[in-house]
Write a structure and sequence with these properties.
The radius of gyration is 22 Å and the shape is globular. It has one domain. The chain is of the alpha+beta class. A hairpin with a 4-residue loop joins β5 and β6. Strands 5-6-7 form a three-stranded antiparallel beta sheet, with helices on one face. A two-stranded antiparallel sheet has the order 1-2.
């Protein structure tokens, strides 16, 4: 029977980093030399090929967020006591924690246990620190406090990015998202002068129907592969910390790589590279 030890020792802790690096390299190679991909596709299109890579980068980021929060929720302490040994059972257990993630993103609770004290053996420690750094003695390490604050910031950003699941679901269910918009312009009626011009060619559009509000929305999202890749690497490193710190304990202190996070790094990675990130048109039905 597979147990928690085998899970922590075998988990692919850097899966999303490898995947993101592969997609990043493919995108760079395609831009540098489009003819280097002799694909056997009828009516091959460079634009479609490049777009498919950006779609995969976007989905990889969403999946990395999902994995990160799945692990965090599955390690949630019970009655103030750590819950690492039940990781497998908790992962496969059916649960609906997306509302908690949404509340957390909005600053309304949701994942309050991260700020609570937990017990591991005879040691009391904050849950956030225990999750990502275990019982490492870091009291004299001045990087710890900044890293914990940066981790909280990453979790807030990623929770916000995945809270609205309409875009992610449009990729997962039927690939019902497609290139549609090319530009958005606003003109002054009296003079015809253009006051806003947004290039939307590098975007994808999907339709969402809200039965409760009785509205139909056309939502356009700009691609931002640089941000998606950067945030995927941050998610990967958090996932790696969760796993590797427990692998270290199971291997009796064997050296592993643990990441410390910085405020400036988080701000750099989360920066958007487009003035317009998304555009929504809604109409009553």
């Amino acid at each position: 029977m597979i147990n928690a030890k085998e899970f922590y020792l075998g988990f692919q802790a850097d899966y999303y980093a490898y995947r993101a690096l592969r997609l990043k390299k493919e995108m760079e190679l395609l831009k540098e030399n489009p003819s280097s991909f002799p694909l056997e596709i009828y009516d091959y299109s460079f634009e479609d090929h490049l777009r498919s890579i950006k779609i995969d980068i976007r989905q990889t980021y969403f999946q990395a967020i999902e994995t990160l929060f799945e692990l965090i929720v599955s390690m949630k302490p019970v009655d103030g006591v750590v819950n690492d040994s039940r990781i497998l059972k908790n992962l496969v257990k059916k649960k609906d924690h997306y509302n908690d993630i949404r509340l957390f993103a909005e600053g309304k609770g949701g994942l309050d246990f991260l700020d609570q004290e937990v017990i591991q053996g005879k040691v009391k420690i904050m849950a956030l620190q225990y999750l990502f750094y275990g019982l490492l003695d870091l009291r004299e390490d001045n990087k710890l406090q900044e890293s914990l604050e940066a981790i909280t910031r990453i979790l807030k950003i990623t929770a916000t990015d995945i809270s609205d699941r309409r875009e992610y679901n449009s990729y997962k269910h039927g690939l019902r998202i497609f290139p549609h918009a090319s530009m958005f312009q606003v003109h002054i009626p009296e003079t015809g002068a253009e006051i806003i011009h947004w290039d939307l060619k590098d975007s994808m559009t999907f339709v969402h129907e809200d039965d409760k509000e009785k509205t139909l929305s056309v939502i356009t999202k700009m691609f931002d592969p640089e941000r998606d890749l950067n945030m995927t690497f941050l998610c990967n490193n958090l996932i790696s910390n969760l796993i590797m710190i427990r692998r270290r304990e199971l291997n009796q202190g064997k050296t592993v790589s643990i990441t410390f996070f910085r405020h400036d790094e988080v701000e750099r990675c989360s920066k958007h590279h487009s003035i317009c990130t998304h555009l929504t048109f809604s109409m009553e039905q």
